[in-house]
Amino acid sequence: MLTPWLYLLKDDEQLLIETPTTRRVVNGPGSVITPPLATAQRRSALVLGPTEYVRLRDTATGETHNIVGPRRYFLGATEEVDEQRTAIPLKRNQYMRLIDQRSGTIRVERGEQSVLLGPTEEVLESPRDGVNIDAMTAVLVRDTRGGGLDLITVPQVFVPTPHQEIVEVRRRILLENHEAVVVKGRDGAFTVYWGRDAERSFFLEPYSELVQFRWSSGIHKDRRELKITHLDLRPKFMWYEFEVRTQDNVELVVGLTFFWQIVEVEQMVRTTDDAPGDICSHARSDIIQAVSQVSLERFLAAFNEVIGAAVLGDDDPFYAERGAQLHAVEVRAVTCKDPTTQRILQEIIQETTNRLNRLQHQESENEVLMRQIEGEIAAEDLRGRLMEVRQAVEEAAARITGAAEGERVRAFFAGLGADLPASDKLAIFHTLRKQEALTALSGGTARLFFTPADVDLRIQTE
Known about the structure:
CATH architecture of one domain: 2-Layer Sandwich
CATH superfamily of one domain: Band 7 domain
Distance between the termini: 205 Å
CATH topology of one domain: Tetrahydropterin Synthase, Chain A
Largest sheet: 4 strands, antiparallel
């Protein structure tokens, strides 16, 4: 501008004046007249809060520096805002790592505080919680100067130093009575820790690691996807399925259940890295050989005996060499590989099932009939006993009645006196009895018919 200008500045404004050879600022409040050939730019002052700060760059030298709030700041003639930042708050148990891009120096800031980055610093690790080290937790750290590892077990809230980095937070290994683990040390040697020992809980030392076993899994044991670190020493079972061929050339698919147990961990580690796979493969070989020597009918009649004898019958050292013991093997399923043969087998099984059902039904009917006959026998036996009791009662009643009647007759005869002959006494007695009978008949509806002999009927003529 060739013509001077007048600028009025507030107290939070400044004017950047540039001429072809100079550059300067004028801060308010006030008035400014620009010289000829000068350009002017009105700028507001920087107002920073308590947690705010800015990184400024000097365009003349390239140096950077910070301006920290709370304050109001006017930029210099060669200053420009490179980045406006906010202080990073840290809690008491938090920390963060910063790196100086100019020198490469790393520093660690720990809470509680608000962290301000230096002009050439960047965040290497964002705020994170310190590690609570207690009886169950330890920290494996690496010294970045010497490269060594150290296990920190002293109870504290652990915050690494600038020359430390956390490699791993380790949990104390707790073993139950039936468990064992294998640890590989820095020299490659294996050590077995048992749950039954006094030292059943421990931290892994630096340069040591738990051995992870990769065992065969699936019903065909064709995938090594089962990852195990803690070995269960209790008896357990696993399923296995494979094909066999009988002596009469029938292909079968046999499903088995193995009951097995790890008994020698050291022996297992020395001889195999896949105990279930080895057990199933070896048992499969023995079973195929045994089944090939029997017919289908013989196998279906006694498949458990055939397979049990093949796997457990001889004193095979194979399983003991791998630190395992087979307790039992059971057939879970038997199917024919060929669908046509399988249908015939199903028909045979169905017919056998029907026959068993009929036999069972007949046995049930026989049992019901036997129970019915037993009930009738018991009822007749009770009736016989009842008749015997009634007979005994009637005999006793008759004896009592007879005794009473005899006593009455004796008293009657004695009352007639000794002078009367016995025949007359007997005639009088019969006459009275007839009178009693007539009295009883007269009181009812019965009819009494007398013959001439009964009434002593006589016809007298003159």
